[in-house]
Amino acid sequence: MKKSGGNIGQFFLELGVLKRFPRTGWLRAGIENPESIADHSFRTAMIAWALAKFEGADSDRVVKMALLHDLEESRTGDLDMVMKRYHSNGKKAKAYSDILKNSPYNSEAHELVDELSLQKTLESKIVKDADKIELFLQAFEYEVGGFKEAAKWKHSSKAGLKLKSSKDLIKQLETQEINWWYNYGKK
Q1: Pairing of strands 2-3, 6-7
Q2: pLDDT (tens digit, 9 = 90+) per residue, 22-58?
Q3: Kind and range of the H or E element at 14?
């Protein structure tokens, strides 16, 4: 089946790579089996959707943008902060272009990716904040699991949050019990 000039089957198979590629910053930090890029993107999209509701933003646009925010990593891999110093942003744009040519939403996706990179709209700021909040949550989970160095990521992920609702959400998350399920249903 071909749509929009590309091979949609290839596109969906390529998305599967995101389920297998780990987040490399956690590997560098010593986490043996870190979350995948897809794991990260899913929770980022859910956080972004909630923030869009809090901010009165276009939820549909925000969720799509969040789903796309690390799509290029199916070709580039997840570049942690050290690796990013040695790679050019031009390669990222080429990866997006090569991946999206096989998707049924090529032009819309490019528009959303461009909007996200410019960081001028409320929707793009929501996705950027959601990405940082997801990092905070993952660091929190790793810290509670025994990796105490993850506290550094928790603190650094809070820096640069732009929206009040994002800052409020982080404050709430800092008071949460990681094992929420332990007392589930008990009063």
Answers
A1: antiparallel
A2: 999 898 889 999 999 999 999 999 999 999 999 999 9
A3: helix 8-20
- Alpha carbon distance 7, 1 (integer Å): 7
Domain that holds residue 46: 2-173
Mark out the alpha helices in 56-104 (DSSP H runs).
59-68, 73-76, 81-84, 89-100
**pTM (2 d.p.):** 0.91
Residue 179 maps to a domain: no
Instruction: Confirm whether 163 is domain-assigned.
Output: yes
Own/partner long-range contacts of 32-41 (Cβ < 8 Å, ≥24 apart): 35/138, 37/70, 37/73, 37/74, 37/78, 40/70, 40/134, 40/135, 40/138, 41/66, 41/67, 41/69, 41/70, 41/71
Q: Give the chain's domain count.
A: 1
The residue type at 23: R
Amino acid at 156: S
Joined together, the tokens standing for residue 28 give 């560098």
Q: Where are the beta strands (DSSP E) in the chain?
A: 2-3, 6-7
Radius of gyration of the chain (CA): 17
For residue 185, being part of any structural domain is answered with no
